């Protein structure tokens, strides 16, 4: 196999054109086989195989720099830079990342994971290169979808001012351009990048500038030339900004791509190379349904179907059904997504209520402000968005939603640990960055039924409200506890204190009553339930309460629990700083100094990729780890004198 000969970036340069095409086929087969076992991003990587090979041919890596927008399409890049043998551990704990990581390889010029960032990052590298008087090429690869993000245009606006080479590759996998326009554009691109043409252009401009009226002649020539180009060149948007447009180029023709990149390197300013690719190329099921194969779990290569059968609905499924049910009763409910109708569960809504569905593209900031406008007009907007992507609209939440106290509902999907996508996708900061905003209400459901109830409550509240829920199967336990949602109110699920009352039986006189209460929110309520069961099996009684509201947390509930218990253990799937646990601890220490508070939360660190169960164990937030931590801190020795603790 030719693929086995590739151990580093220069190895592709020793291959013939025929061998390069065979290599592309072998890479696709390799990716399909490996990703079918590990899961990962398939369709996007199958679409950029030839493009990546051409980049490695045309540039001197790692001296030259390639910045991949989002970065989930960098698998071929990793293979060609000598990491093929690491793919068995792709996206697994301690293994190869599914995104570019500078700490992983010198070939990864910039860490990416969120969209529309590559041009800004590449421009910054160019400016550093030029100020330090260094000599290397910089290439930013960005997809057509990422160009729906405003940050890309902010970067293009600044890139137009460059006087040194900067190459932007537009990987377009969703647009077809006719033969005639493509042929003329290719012809003019070749002329504009030729040495003779550029030398002649500079000479003519130099001569005209030195004669009376020469500047006006230059402007008239430019207007005439641009008028002609407007008819035949699809890239006039970029040309008018001052960025030379080359293309469109067949993104699966290695020779043509390599030649175009060589031409682009000659220019002394910003240049955009428009490349047409097919997402999912080379694998029938992915070509037919590229969205389905964007990010996949392990699957059967023969059929394309997942190996693990989905038995129970996810929180996303529960949200989707509940939203459609509520929208069927209230025509003012509208839904907004930032290019993720499938991932956030809004695909079903979009089909049932197409006029009330808005996909703003990869533009979270715009989505939040447009939702604020809808709310101001009398609608009831819900924005369904991943926790890690909502960060991109923080200023708009503060400035446009919460200052005006507009009734926008944020359905914050994938809150907490999400697993294999790693640092850029873990939803572990939303409690902290949302609860610091005045007028914002934050809730977290303990199970699937509470999510349904919270969503209905949120639309009735008439204020900004966020509901955070995790990725994966919705918890089906604790169904018997379904008290109506009241603003700012939590609930006691099991009270094993001496004065316990309500839902739990009175303490067994043969066992000591509970000194400890577990106060959990969201996904950690089920963890707390398991902790309680394990402690009960050891003869240690333990109360359990569901916070429900992260902001405002239920102070009256805390008062009741503090009067009955000596130790609070707060549990949340968010970083400790700015989270639920610290807010509760601050209140308890101020009002009940004799009560000890122990917080279970995520560390002040970025969490790498890996299976969620493995990550929870390594971060010590699974039930067994929490019990060990409680033992280490003496919380399970009820006979000891208890002192306040942070």
Can you walk me through this structure?
There is one protein chain. With 646 residues, the protein is an alpha/beta fold. The strands form three sheets. The protein has a seven-stranded mixed sheet with strand order 7-6-8-9-11-10-15, with helices on both faces. A five-stranded parallel sheet has the order 1-2-3-5-4, sandwiched between helices. It has a five-stranded mixed sheet with strand order 12-14-13-16-17, sandwiched between helices. The chain starts with 16 loop residues before the first helix and ends in a 14-residue tail after the last helix. 48% of the residues are buried. The model is unreliable at 175-193, 228-232, 504-511 and 639-646 (pLDDT under 50).
Can you summarize the main beta sheet?
7 strands, mixed
Question: Into which percent range does the helicity of residues fall?
Answer: 40-55%
Please tell me how large the radius of gyration is.
29 Å
Spatial shape: globular
Distance between the termini: 60 Å
Set out the fold topology.
Layout: H1 17-38, H2 43-46, H3 49-58, E1 65-68, H4 75-83, H5 118-131, E2 138-143, H6 150-159, E3 166-172, H7 179-193, H8 195-208, H9 214-232, H10 236-241, E4 244-250, H11 254-264, E5 270-276, H12 284-288, H13 315-329, E6 333-337, H14 347-352, E7 357-359, H15 364-376, E8 380-386, H16 387-390, H17 394-402, E9 409-413, H18 430-435, E10 441-443, H19 448-461, E11 465-468, E12 491-494, E13 516-520, H20 524-537, E14 543-546, E15 549-551, H21 555-564, E16 567-575, H22 580-591, E17 596-602, H23 612-618, H24 623-632
Parallel strand pairs: 1-2, 2-3, 3-5, 4-5, 6-7, 6-8, 8-9, 9-11, 10-11, 13-14, 13-16, 16-17
Antiparallel strand pairs: 10-15, 12-14
Helix pairs in contact: 3-11, 5-6, 13-19, 15-17, 20-24
């Amino acid at each position: 196999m030719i693929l086995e000969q590739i151990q580093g970036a220069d190895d592709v340069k020793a291959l013939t054109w025929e061998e390069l095409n065979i290599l592309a086929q072998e890479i696709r087969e390799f990716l399909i086989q490996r990703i079918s076992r590990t899961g990962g991003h398939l369709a996007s990587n199958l679409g950029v195989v030839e493009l990546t090979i051409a980049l490695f041919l045309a540039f001197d890596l790692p001296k030259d720099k390639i910045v991949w927008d989002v970065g989930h399409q960098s698998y071929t890049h990793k293979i060609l830079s000598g990491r093929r043998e690491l793919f068995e551990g792709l996206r697994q704990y301690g293994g190869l990342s599914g995104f570019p990581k500078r700490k992983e390889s010198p070939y990864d010029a910039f860490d990416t994971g969120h969209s529309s960032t590559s041009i800004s990052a590449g421009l910054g590298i160019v400016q550093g290169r030029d100020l330090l008087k260094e000599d290397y090429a910089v290439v930013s690869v960005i997809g057509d979808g990422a160009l729906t993000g405003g940050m890309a245009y902010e970067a293009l606006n600044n890139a137009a001012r460059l006087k040194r080479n900067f190459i932007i590759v537009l990987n377009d996998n969703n647009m077809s351009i006719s033969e005639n326009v493509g042929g003329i554009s290719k012809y003019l691109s070749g002329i504009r990048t030729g040495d003779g043409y550029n030398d002649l252009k500079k000479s003519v401009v130099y001569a005209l500038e030195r004669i009376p009226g020469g500047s006006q002649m230059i402007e008239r020539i430019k207007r005439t030339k641009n008028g002609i180009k407007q008819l035949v060149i699809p890239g006039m948007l970029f040309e008018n900004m001052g960025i030379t447009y080359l293309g469109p180029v067949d993104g699966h023709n290695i020779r043509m791509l390599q030649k175009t990149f060589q031409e682009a390197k000659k220019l002394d300013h910003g240049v955009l190379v428009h490349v047409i690719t097919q997402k999912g190329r080379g694998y029938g099921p992915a070509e037919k349904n590229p969205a389905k194969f964007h990010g996949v779990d392990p699957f059967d290569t023969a059929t394309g179907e997942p190996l693990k059968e989905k038995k129970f609905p996810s929180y996303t499924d529960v949200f989707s059904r509940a939203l459609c049910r509520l929208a069927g009763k209230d025509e003012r409910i509208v839904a907004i997504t930032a290019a993720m109708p499938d991932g956030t569960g809004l695909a079903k809504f979009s089909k049932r209520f197409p006029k009330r569905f808005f996909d703003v593209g990869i533009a979270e900031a715009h989505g939040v402000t447009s939702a604020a406008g809808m709310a101001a007009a009398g609608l009831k907007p819900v924005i369904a968005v991943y926790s890690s992507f909502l960060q991109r609209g923080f200023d708009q939440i503060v400035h446009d939603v919460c200052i005006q106290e507009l009734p926008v509902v944020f359905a914050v999907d994938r809150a907490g640990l999400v697993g294999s996508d790693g640092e850029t996708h873990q939803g572990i900061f939303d409690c902290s960055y949302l609860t610091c905003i005045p007028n914002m209400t934050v809730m977290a459901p303990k199970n699937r039924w509470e999510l349904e109830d919270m969503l209905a409550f949120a639309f009735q509240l008439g204020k900004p409200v966020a509901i955070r829920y995790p990725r994966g199967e919705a918890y089906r336990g604790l169904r018997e506890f379904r008290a109506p949602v009241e603003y700012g109110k939590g609930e006691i699920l099991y009270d094993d204190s001496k004065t316990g009352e309500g839902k739990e039986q009175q303490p067994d006189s043969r066992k000591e009553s509970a000194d400890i209460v577990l106060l959990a929110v969201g996904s950690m309520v089920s963890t707390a339930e398991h902790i309680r069961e394990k402690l009960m099996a050891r003869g240690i009684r333990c109360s359990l309460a569901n916070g429900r509201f992260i902001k405002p947390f239920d102070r009256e509930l805390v008062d009741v629990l503090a009067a009955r218990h000596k130790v609070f253990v707060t549990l949340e799937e968010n970083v400790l700083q700015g989270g639920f646990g610290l807010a509760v601890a601050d209140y308890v220490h101020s009002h009940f100094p004799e009560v000890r508070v122990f917080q279970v939360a995520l560390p002040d660190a970025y969490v790498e990729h890996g299976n969620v169960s493995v990550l929870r164990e390594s971060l010590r937030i699974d039930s067994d780890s929490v019990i060990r931590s409680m033992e280490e801190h003496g919380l399970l020795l009820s006979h000891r004198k208890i002192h306040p603790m942070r």
